[in-house]
Amino acid sequence: MRTKANETFITFGKKYGNPVFIFRYLLIPDALIVFYSAVFALFSSRLFPENVNYYFSLKLFAVSSLLLLVLVFLLVILRGVKNDDRLLGDTPTCREGLSSDLWVLLLPLAPVVQYILRNQDTLSLLDSMVIGIIFVILSFVFIIAIPGLLGKYSPVRLLVSTGSAFIFTIVNMASVSSFLFWLEEGSSKIQIGLFAAALVITWLLLGLKDKKDLAFVVLAFFLGSIAIQFLPENRNPVASTDENSYEENKLMNLAAGRQPVTTPNIYLLVYDAYVANETMLEHSIDNHEQEEFLVDQGFVLYPHTYSVGPSTLSSMNKVLNVSMDSYGHYRSGVSGGGTVQKLLKDLNYHTFGIFGYDYMFRGVGPQYDDYVPQTVIPSYQLLLSGILMGEFRFDIGLETISHEEYVQAKREVFAEPGERPFFIYTHSGLPGHSQNSGACLPNETELYRERLAEANEEMRQDIALIAENDPGALVIIAGDHGPYLTKNCMFTGSYYDGSEISRVDFQDRYGSFLAIRWPADEGQKYDDIVVLQDIFPAVFSYIFQDETLLQSKIEPVTVDAGVISGVFVKDGILYGGIDDGEPLFLSGR
Questions:
Q1: Which of 5, 55, 390, 459 is most exposed, with minimal Cβ within 10 Å?
Q2: Cα dist. 513→230, 250, 413, 481, 529 in Å?
Q3: Per-residue model confidence (pLDDT) at position 99
């Protein structure tokens, strides 16, 4: 005797458990997911290091492949079952509905436009167009073209939803990784959940009877995503090219029209995230032997020096402009167009900028007389890499040339100083800061320790070569900011209250390193140095033998307080945090 429940079950089984339904509505869409994830994983493995999107596509491939095997097994079992029921309707052909489905292309393009708007400080109009065109083509192939070809085997609505969900997940992954502090690999549950949600939402949108409703919803989402980028907190300052404000620079005005008393070659050798031993000891790293080596080589150490800026650009641009102002593009100083380089060129100095990457030149181009690397990676390529990798790592593109090539390039200059005075700025990637995902690696400090050993050896060899070939040079050894090894190994921002920030946390971000070898020990009467940005007021005071140029020093107060939860330092004193009102450094000078 059949009950109503039994009849319902039988009807359901006939409707959704027959081979035709399984093949069209389950197997073909799932096979498409297998294909998409396999192609993307292969593509990613060939072009990029292991990354979040690579592992996501591998996991999605594994899950969808397992489901595919189950579906094939079901079809084999049901092969001999007689089933006269027709499917819910004829499967749409590749030509039906695709024109209205074009609106769905805007869903994955919305985050792409967001990325472009966020990076207008480095992207040209051409860069933006290239990125847009690439993702339009990619989206069209995955969302429209391939589903159109398979339309006679499976409903186009379902296939379009599958393609749209895959591309939408891939392009949004970088934002998700940033929010959840993923590095290289993320949570498969969250990733596959995001993919499933995107698939269901797209499928529901495509099911709207009135296609005007579809257009309205998609356009609202697209335009709303763009509008968010114009909110004050999301806007990046657009680089200016106005250089008129250089006239207001104190150092420029004080040095104008003067003739130098001495013109030594000036070496500015920066080792990324290198800090004084007081900070090193807080991480159980004792670097006193390296500091003693520098003293033995005639260097004066400035162990209480800190930077007013917490990052390479924020720190070094202010060093080379001797100002809080960027005077045009915010890379003006590091790219070779800073106040320091301009003044030295006026004094007949030849300028060199030698780096292992083109980071200093992005968006503005090199302005040194000679520079390395010669090739600048297109900005669109860097952004494209970050989107496809699913994470905007700080080191994307940071090896335009190998470290060995970088070292060779700078030492070629060290070995042959020449007759004309020169200024050289080199910036080694060693020891380097944490990976900046927002979560510390279990061995983050140990990795820093290993890189520090390499940096120390590189520094020793650099100094030895300069001492051999240019004993009368003015040599500056510096670290631009801290290693970021405490708390979340990144900006503490809103993740920690200011009351949780310690002296060590602040040193770990704003701490720097400074050692100077003055020619014939004649520069120490000019070395009134509090912050790293005081280097060149002291250097120019020595060149002109005039202490009045020290008046060009900037106010020794740190900026970007959001980096360290609102705590700041002025004149070496902490304001806020656990050690409020106390000195930033405790060790003797």
A1: 5
A2: 38, 25, 24, 8, 12
A3: 60
Beta bridge partners of 267: 424, 475
Phi, psi of 63 (to 5 degrees): -65, -45
Residue bearing tokens 């405490």: 486
Q: In CATH, what is the architecture of 244-575?
A: 3-Layer(aba) Sandwich (3.40)
Query: DSSP 3-state assignment of 62?
Result: helix
Residue 92 CB-density burial (10 A; 0-12 exposed, 13-18 middle, 19+ buried): middle
Distant-in-sequence contacts of 54-57, Cβ < 8 A, 24+ apart: 54/389, 54/390, 55/184, 55/185, 55/186, 55/188, 56/169, 56/170, 56/173, 56/186, 56/188, 56/191, 56/390, 57/170
Statement: the pTM of the whole predicted model exceeds 0.70:
yes
DSSP conformational letter for 24: I
Within its chain, how far is the Cα of 475 from the centroid? 31
Per-residue pLDDT, 521: 72
* C-beta separation of 208 from 97 below 8 A: no
Cis (ω within 30 of 0) for the bond into 373?
A: yes
Q: Which residues contact 528 (CB under 8 A, 6 or more apart)?
A: 534, 538, 550, 553
User: C-alpha angle with apex 561: 559 to 567, nearest 5 degrees?
Assistant: 115
Identity at 561, one-letter amino acid code = A
Residue 182 in tokens: 């993923």
- Residue ranges, CATH 3.40.720.10, the chain: 244-575
Largest CA distance in the chain: 112
Contact 528, 534 (CB under 8 A): yes
* Residue-level pLDDT at 448: 97
Q: Which residues of the chain have pLDDT under 50?
A: 1, 9-10, 12-13, 80-96, 237-243
The conformational region for residue 502 under phi > 0 = left, psi -120 to 50 = alpha, else beta, is beta
Say which residues have a Cβ less than 8 Å from residue 433's Cβ, sequence separation at least 6: 272, 273, 481, 482, 483, 484
Q: What is the 3-state secondary structure (H, E, C) of 494-554?
A: CCCCHHHCCHHHHHHHHECEEEEECHHHCCHHHCCCCEHHHHHHHHHHHHHCCHHHHHHCC
- Comparing C-alpha atoms, which of 302, 306, 303 is closest to residue 319? 306
Residue (of 260, 264, 245, 435) closest to 328 by Cα position: 245
Convert the pLDDT of each residue in 94-137 to its tens digit.
444 566 678 888 999 999 999 998 888 778 889 999 999 999 99
| Calpha distance 310→306 (Å, rounded) | 9
pLDDT tens-digit map of 380-392: 888 999 999 999 8
Q: Which residue has the tokens 């004993």?
A: 471
Secondary structure class of 451 (helix, strand, coil): helix
What's the pLDDT tens digit per position in 267-303?
A: 999 999 999 999 999 999 999 999 999 999 999 999 9
Ordered DSSP codes for 100-125:
HHGGGGHHHHHHHHHHHHHTTTT--H
Q: What is the CA radius of gyration of the chain?
A: 30
Count Cβ atoms within 10 A of the Cβ of residue 65 and give its class: 0-12 exposed, 13-18 middle, 19 or more buried. Answer: middle
CB atoms within 10 A of CB 119: 20
The crossing angle, in degrees rounded to 10, of helices 188-206 and 211-228 is 140
- Here the tokens at position 129 are 């167009």
Give yes or no for a contact between 101 and 156, defined as CB atoms under 8 angstroms apart.
Answer: yes
